[in-house]
Amino acid sequence: MATEIVYEQGDATAPRGSGRPRIIAHVCNDSGGWGRGFVLALSRRWSAPETAFRRWYRDRQGNDFALGAVQYVEVEPGLWVANMVGQHGMRTAAERAAGVGVPVRYEAIDAALASLGDRALALGASVHMPRIGCGLAGGRWEVVEPLVTRRLTGRGVPVTVYDPA
Length: 165
Prior knowledge:
The chain is an alpha/beta fold and 165 residues long.
């Protein structure tokens, strides 16, 4: 039973709804950087997602850290953050201004969303996110949205996308 993506203005780190587990999904880079974009909002609310991501990256030789991988961090009872690796490297402000290629990797976001869909269905969870991959990663929502539809809402996972108020 497919559902539609719900779009709301608000803060994706404060997901709306109750009565079911919730997962906040966002895109991380594969170079271990954490300090700009949506992750700052996460870190203001909880320290665990950043701590777990940095450890995951540091120990990457012995774990599954790679493009397309997902790390789930429980930040409150029934509330997880999904650190999804969907960006290859980072661009400087000068590179962004010059239009240098974007670091988003749509195939990695697709793989991460497939994992997220499995986890959400297993937990009976809803998924909450900003427009993943479309900020510093430089992606386009018209490319990401069909991935969210196929991997999540098309499988019956409720999804809310938050745009800043």
